[in-house]
């Protein structure tokens, strides 16, 4: 066996999965058909849940300091402001903030963490065939080499080669016509404290500040019919669109660093697993960029899959544990797809009824603080719970499957720490040494014993992805683990 896990795709999801697997002591190789790391990216926002995942991977680094805190969205009709949404604390404790940051910078931070763990992406390495049997997967690369891996995970995007080789369907529908996307420097009076958007009969327009004195411009433009426009043509089209839709607000495009076109499609894989082949991120689900849910959902996929796959590889769990990956993550993807599709349809509403509902009903009520807190809560994904899944449970809160906030804790020697900082490839017992022994009997040494600082909690076992496994003493903990792992 050349490696325990072969990950196809060195984007944020593949890199996060590789880092998490290495934290769990599993060997992994990452291959990507691209010539090298991406320098541009469509994703440019990491919500609090994504920042938490990066923190637990010890890959957050200096991203928080480098990112912007553009936490408002102001919507205009021409030069007249209609609504201003403020994103704030949804009331769920987290030590990791939401960030306006390029996906390329997130990937760079993950590559740095991967290097510290002893791994590296293998660029210019595409897949052309994969055959699996009872003990592993034989993967043929484009250069003719064959890699033998215990498991193959496709993190290779919406056009996933792995998904195609596994014969997994990816049904869906087109949601929108073309959007223009341009990253550029602007001459503008807009403040860089938040995103600005315009509603217009010809299509919505958005301007989002980015680190490094850059702005991201996004315009819905179904009238742009060039079949294969160059970047220069896209930029010139954006230059024409800006004054048409922004009224008297000064916003002039000076110099573009990247331009692209995209359409919104809604797709969901028929299954996340076929034998020893699994999917994560955009290879499993594709949806609109509105709300910043794509990279966020993919990072959650990676963290959820990693600890389960590690236990199976280490012989501490049976393969049925891997079925809980799809059972926990696919319903979330379905919900995200529905939400992003609805938001896209609102943004691009072209008919008089749709525009009336958006401009006269939905936008005005978005000024209410309670609704704004609800929006922050919804997009953060801090609310995600698996209590209704096969590893969830009932009882008083928190319930098995619920997210556990990043609590201040103490190690046994009294040293202060944080719960999520201790979960880097490990489980956590908040309780007594008897519960720790019961956990280590079944999970090995990757379990840490902590005391919550300044508060009383029932004895609990916390999963590596910061979700509650179970509550109770050694007997309850042992019973849960025996049921979950076998």
Keywords:
8-stranded mixed sheet, 33% helix, 486 residues, alpha+beta
Summary, kept brief:
This protein has helices at residues 12-23, 48-56, 63-66, 103-116, 161-166, 231-246, 294-313, 320-347, 352-365, 369-380, 419-422, 433-443, 474-485; strands at residues 3-8, 28-31, 45-46, 72-77, 80-86, 99-100, 121-122, 127-132, 137-141, 146-154, 172-188, 195-198, 205-210, 214-220, 251-268, 273-274, 277-279, 285-286, 408-410, 416-418, 427-430, 447-452, 460-462, 468-471.
Would you mind describing this structure in some detail?
This protein is α+β, with helices and mostly antiparallel strands and 486 residues long. It has 13 helices and 24 strands. It has helices at residues 12-23, 48-56, 63-66, 103-116, 161-166, 231-246, 294-313, 320-347, 352-365, 369-380, 419-422, 433-443, 474-485, and strands at 3-8, 28-31, 45-46, 72-77, 80-86, 99-100, 121-122, 127-132, 137-141, 146-154, 172-188, 195-198, 205-210, 214-220, 251-268, 273-274, 277-279, 285-286, 408-410, 416-418, 427-430, 447-452, 460-462, 468-471. The strands form four sheets. Strands 1, 2, 7, 8, 9, 10, 16 and 17 form an eight-stranded mixed β-sheet that branches. The radius of gyration is 23 Å and the shape is globular.
């Amino acid at each position: 066996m050349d490696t325990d896990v072969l990950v196809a795709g060195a984007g944020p999801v593949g890199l996060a999965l590789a880092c998490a697997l290495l934290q769990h002591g599993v060997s992994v190789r990452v291959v990507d058909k691209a010539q090298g790391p991406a320098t541009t990216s469509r994703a440019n926002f990491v919500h609090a849940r994504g920042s938490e995942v990066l923190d637990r991977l010890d890959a957050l680094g200096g991203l928080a300091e480098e990112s912007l805190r553009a936490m408002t969205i102001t919507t205009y009709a021409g030069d007249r402001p209609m609504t201003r949404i403020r994103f704030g604390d949804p009331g769920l404790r987290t030590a990791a903030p939401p960030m306006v940051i390029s996906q390329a910078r997130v990937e760079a931070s993950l590559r740095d963490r991967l290097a510290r763990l002893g791994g590296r992406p293998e660029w210019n390495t595409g897949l052309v065939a994969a055959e699996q049997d009872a003990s592993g997967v034989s993967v043929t690369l484009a250069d003719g080499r064959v890699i033998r891996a215990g498991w193959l995970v496709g993190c290779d995007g919406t056009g996933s080669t792995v998904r195609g080789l596994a014969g997994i369907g990816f049904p869906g529908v087109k949601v929108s016509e073309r959007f223009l996307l341009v990253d550029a420097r602007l001459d503008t009076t807009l403040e860089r404290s938040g995103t600005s958007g315009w509603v217009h009969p010809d299509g919505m327009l958005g301007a989002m500040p980015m680190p490094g004195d850059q702005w991201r411009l996004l315009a819905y433009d179904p009238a742009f019919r060039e079949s294969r426009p160059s970047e220069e043509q896209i930029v010139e089209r954006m230059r024409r669109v800006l004054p048409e839709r922004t009224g008297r607000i000064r916003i002039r495009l000076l110099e573009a660093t990247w331009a692209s076109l995209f359409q919104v499609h809604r797709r969901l894989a028929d299954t996340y697993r076929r034998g020893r082949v699994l999917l994560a991120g955009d290879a499993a689900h594709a949806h609109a960029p509105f709300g910043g849910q794509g990279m966020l959902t993919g990072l959650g996929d990676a963290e959820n899959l990693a600890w389960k796959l590690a236990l199976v590889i280490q012989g501490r769990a049976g393969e049925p544990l891997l079925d809980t990956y799809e059972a926990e993550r696919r319903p979330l993807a379905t919900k995200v797809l529905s939400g992003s599709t609805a938001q896209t349809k609102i943004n691009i509403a072209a008919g008089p009824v749709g525009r009336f509902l958006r401009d006269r009903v939905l936008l005005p009520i978005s000024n209410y603080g309670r609704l704004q807190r609800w929006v922050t809560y919804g997009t953060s994904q801090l609310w995600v719970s698996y209590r209704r899944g096969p590893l969830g449970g009932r009882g008083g809160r928190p319930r098995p499957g619920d997210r556990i906030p990043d609590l201040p804790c103490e190690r046994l020697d009294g040293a202060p720490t944080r719960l999520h900082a201790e979960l880097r490839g490990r489980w956590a017992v908040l309780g007594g040494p008897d519960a720790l022994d019961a956990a280590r009997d079944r999970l090995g040494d990757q379990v840490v014993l902590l005391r919550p600082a300044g508060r009383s909690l029932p004895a609990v076992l916390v999963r590596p992805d910061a979700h509650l496994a179970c509550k109770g003493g050694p007997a309850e903990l042992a019973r849960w683990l025996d049921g979950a792992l076998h």
